[in-house]
Amino acid sequence: MLSLGALSFSAPWILLALAGLPALWLVLRATPPAPKRVRFPAFIILRRLTTKEETPDRTPWWVLLLRLVIAGLVIVGLAGPVLNAPTPAQTTGPLVFAVDDTWAAAGGWRLRLDALAAGAEEAAQAGRPVFLLTTADPAGDPPQGPMTGEAARELFAALAPKPFAADRAGAAARLSRLDPALARAGGAAEIRWLSDGLAGEGDDALAEALAARGALTVYADRETPLVVLRPDRQAGAPARWRVERLRGGPEWRGALVAAARDGRELARAPAVLPAGERTARVAVDLPLALRNEVAAVAIEGARSAGAIQLADARDRRALVGFVAGEDAQQDPLLSGTRYVRKALEPYAGFLTDALDGLIRADVSVIVLHDVGRLRASDAEALAAWVERGGVLIRFAGPSLADAAQDEDLPLLPAPLRGGGRAFGGALTWETPQALAGFSKNGPFADMPPPDDVFVRRQVLAEPGGETSARTWAFLADGTPLVTGARRGDGAIALFHVPATPGWSDLPLSATFVDMLRKLTFLSLLGPSREEADAGARLSPLRVLDGFGRFRDPDPDLAGVTAAEAAAGAAPDRPPGFYGAPEAPIAVNALGPDGALEPLALSGVAETAYAQEPPARLAPPLFAAALALLLLDALVALALAGRLRLAALALLAAASAPASDLRAQPLDAALDPKAVEAALQTRLAYVRTGDPEIDRLSELGLAALSRELYRRTALEPAPPVAVDPETDDLSVYPLLYWPIAAGARPPSEQGLANIENFMRFGGLIIFDTRDDERAVAGLETPERAALRAILAQLDLPPLAALPDDHVLTRSFYLLDRLYGRMWNNPVWVQAPASAAGEANDGVTPVIIGGRDWAGAWATDRFGRPLRPMARGGERARELAYRAGINMAMVAYTGNYKSDQVHAPILLERLGRGRP
């Protein structure tokens, strides 16, 4: 290997070919022997001719120089030039890479790829085997190798950081699988640990295992700042966050961005780490409504899964309502609502109002403290609110105990026991009872029982199976402390003690905070909360990669339980959203606790990552040589006078594929039925599925087609039945639609086809065939079916057919559109809406009940199939004329109307008769 400063050659002996370039110059400029001169008299005439084009007798020097440059580029490329090539190692033993492919390494991942590329290049030049060990491998696979430098280069380029912390203890255990391969490779191994700089468990174990197998060098990234984001639980509000960095340094400035699930930016807050400081607290100020829409908060510009915190549905702040005047007779400092407010203050917003005002404000939770009797109207409104998803939290007390003696109270999860004990059924113990535990079927199932909560007095529930099933928390003697039940999408919970410390220690404990927070969570998650509490596995929705970017989960990724999600990310559960899309559970790469300390190893050599990776120059040199070769070809054609012919040939070759493409359309093959209808004029009718109606429609349109053939220039083929759901309607100008009783509206696709048909010039005749049965004020079944169809169509405004409409004069002059009967009006597009509209103002729809097909239909001998309701055969002739007029409008538009108005227009222009 030859090294010239930053430039090296892997095959320098090929450069000797450059010495042959002068000889190549001589070969290229050599000319063939001069022709023998022979005098010919006719040449005298040719000498007097002036030639317009002259061809040089030898190759110009600059063309020779171009060809020498091409040869030189090829020779240098074959020599394998490498820029910033690594220094050749003193050993030929194996090269082992231990890579911390964690979220902490994502910010400086490019430096690690450059170091891996340099090592792969070095191994390729020296023929050393390469091994790879990753410390964040979720599958725990054995190290990869041995492999060549070229194979390692491809593998390293595909590496990406994972959204997990390093498992260095597990990596040290997997390292033993390399021992047989290292022994076979021979020579002293060189080991490079590309660390993420973050201390963790198993650091010393991995360092000792690596050093025991060869010379160990640890690569450290001192340039890329590692900044992470954590929720600031100690600050007492979920809207506050803690920005931390691995090492102190100069002042750091950034911003926190809160985003909704659809990607909208909801808020932005500046973040500053003063010089030397490693932690800063940042508040993201948002109204409660927007705060509950936050899906993620991230450090802007930070490329790491540790710089983003996903918002769990359980972290949303509920809106808790208190009934105004509920504790008016008590000292505000001793009221039950004050204890509830203090317990939920970090996690909720509060509203105090009348009960109907709380329900109108759509609060998440309503708290009733020692409310005995409710008015019937208030109880009914509260029950409806709970059914919609609200959570009603009630606390017992003297008033509730007294009211329970006389009647069964509404909005309680379990009936209360009446009697003559203190406070109307309250039970007093000489020895306080401890809170023993929580039901597995309730929202407190994952909470450990406290050892500091004792109850001295409570309101008892009526014993029974229903009470046992609805007990969410119970005392040491088995009596319920909290009962609850789901109702609709909401829930009702009753604490059998007040929210003040007079009867129990519960309001003074941290357990009280957790219990109230979990109850508010019931209102946020809805029905899926039951599945989470029951230990159901929640399917992944979107997960994060090591760079903190969302991606779709792998198909084989298993779900998580709520308890597993609370434990944070792990190799089998990447950070992301799990569960119901409307209220998912979040798994974050970095939890609120845990130290963020730099990696510190004693007795191990440490070095910085290389600034510039090695770059192979052969590919760009070959590309340049190819470009110059093409230029040389063009120059040769120009010197030979054939450039124009070559250009024409290239143009012809370029146009040939286009012709082929036009001859082979990319669209799918047309429906043969549509092709045949486009080649022959046909009337069409909608197939209803009723055999008698479809038969009459076919025979009626067939008879009308024969009359059109006989009386007009149209020559229609036999009619055809169509299905708006699947058939191409664009090839049929007129569509007859008989409405059957109970007909279902078309699907969305069918409605779209019908609207496109009318929008682009088609005419639909809706015929309910009920004119003789239609009575004012009553609706026939056919008209009800038609109304259901028209309600979903985008129709223009309709009006009764005017006397001067183009439909009454497009071919015959008529006073109405005759059918088998004509008791009720025919409806068409309103004239006022037709002006300036598409289709030149021609109505796209005719609606009536005159049974036109019944008036037209005949058998194969020409005999009418149905009698006329009035008018006899003269009326049938008028019905044929009405059908011909409708067909003319469908095929020719309003040309007849233009002819009728032509004299008036000419008169206005001064060209008509006086």
From TrEMBL:
Pfam families: BatA, DUF4159. Gene3D superfamilies: 3.40.50.880, Domain of unknown function DUF4159 (3.40.50.12140). Residues 7-81 form the Aerotolerance regulator N-terminal domain. The chain crosses the membrane at residues 6-28, 61-83. InterPro entries: Aerotolerance_reg_N, Class_I_gatase-like, Double_TM_dom, DUF4159. The keyword DNA repair does not apply. Residues 682-890 form the DUF4159 domain. Keywords: Membrane, Transmembrane, Transmembrane helix. It comes from the Bacteria. NCBIfam families: two_anch. PANTHER family: BLL2463 PROTEIN (PTHR37464). This is N-terminal double-transmembrane domain-containing protein. It comes from Amphiplicatus metriothermophilus. The lineage of its organism: Bacteria, Pseudomonadati, Pseudomonadota, Alphaproteobacteria, Parvularculales.
